């Protein structure tokens, strides 16, 4: 009879003799005679459709699959399905149990972001779920990723609505743990554009550069979509002779001659200086803006 043995297969990544492998591990059932296990490795070919890669029969509670051009490509979503049977009765098998999907390659975490035009920095991690192999390379063992931003909305709105803290990041190999074999972090900030342009969606992509191994060179990591929520911006003014309106709407006049600090941020290196000069002639003492400097 077909029975469920709660094998609970799980896919992890390991470096075996300098080569990257995926490992399908499962629990042996208690108080049972020694069993054989049939492990079927498959990948997601199209949404909802799996394609078999390899079938393995083993007495062990694990099965390895090497990440190579022959078996699977980086960027594939992989599954392993396990059934158990006694050696003397191979026709009586347990119910097949499938692992959770495992994405093999480079991806962002989180996979999407929702931020606002408020100047806050948001941490974005880019990681490799599989080991980075460096055998035969003279340069330092790492993968350099070039980062790009792209606006997915109306191109007439101008440049992307997000700014990154780095244009390149390096993935340095580390011990595989909790789905990450190498990771780097950067920050994403929404650009405060002083425009009422509605919510906009941008995309961040990563491209491996300078890597000679074909397995990595042709890999297109998963991108991340960033939704930027538009917020109203504040305005302040200094105009005519000159009248000044502050961010909170307070109004006053400044008829003095000289250079003044018009605006200064208390949280970042940003300030505006204004120079005022006599422009009223002999009849009245009036000053006008004649120069401005912003940092």
UniProtKB/TrEMBL annotation:
Q: Where are the transmembrane segments?
A: none
Tell me if Disulfide bond is a UniProt keyword of this record: yes
Q: Name one GO molecular function term.
A: signaling receptor binding
Q: Which InterPro entries match?
A: Dev_Signal_Modulators (IPR050969), Ig_VWDE (IPR057885), VWF_type-D (IPR001846)
Note the Pfam families from the entry.
Ig_VWDE
UniProt domain VWFD: residue ranges:
234-295
Q: Which GO terms describe its cellular component?
A: cell surface; extracellular region
Keyword set includes DNA repair: no
Q: Which PANTHER family match?
A: EGF-LIKE-DOMAIN, MULTIPLE 7, 8, VON WILLEBRAND FACTOR D AND EGF DOMAIN-CONTAINING PROTEIN
Protein name according to UniProt: VWDE protein
């Amino acid at each position: 009879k077909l029975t469920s043995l709660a094998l609970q297969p799980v896919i992890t990544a390991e470096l075996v003799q300098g080569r990257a492998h995926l490992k399908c591990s499962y629990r042996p059932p208690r108080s049972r005679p020694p069993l054989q296990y049939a492990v079927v490795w498959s990948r997601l070919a199209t949404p909802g459709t799996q394609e078999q890669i390899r079938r393995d029969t083993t007495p062990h509670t694990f099965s390895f699959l090497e990440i190579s051009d022959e078996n699977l490509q980086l960027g594939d979503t992989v599954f392993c399905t396990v059934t158990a049977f006694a050696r003397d009765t191979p026709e009586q098998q347990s119910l097949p149990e499938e692992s959770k999907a495992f994405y093999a390659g480079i991806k962002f975490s989180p996979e999407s972001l929702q931020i606002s035009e408020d100047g806050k920095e948001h941490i974005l991690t880019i990681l490799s779920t599989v080991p980075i192999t460096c055998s035969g390379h003279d340069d330092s063992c790492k993968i350099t990723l070039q980062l790009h931003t792209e606006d997915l909305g109306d191109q007439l709105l101008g440049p992307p609505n997000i700014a990154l803290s780095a244009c390149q990041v390096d993935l340095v190999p580390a011990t595989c743990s909790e789905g990450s074999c190498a990771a780097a972090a950067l920050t994403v900030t929404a650009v405060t554009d002083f425009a009422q342009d509605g919510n906009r969606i941008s995309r961040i992509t990563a491209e491996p550069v300078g890597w000679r191994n074909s397995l990595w060179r042709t890999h297109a990591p998963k991108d991340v979509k960033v939704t930027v929520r538009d917020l109203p911006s504040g305005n302040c003014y200094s105009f005519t002779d000159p009248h000044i309106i502050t961010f909170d709407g307070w109004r006053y006049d400044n008829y003095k001659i000289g250079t003044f600090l018009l605006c200064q941020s208390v949280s970042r290196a940003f300030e505006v200086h204004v120079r005022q000069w006599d422009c009223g002639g002999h009849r009245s003492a009036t000053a006008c803006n004649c120069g401005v400097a912003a940092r």
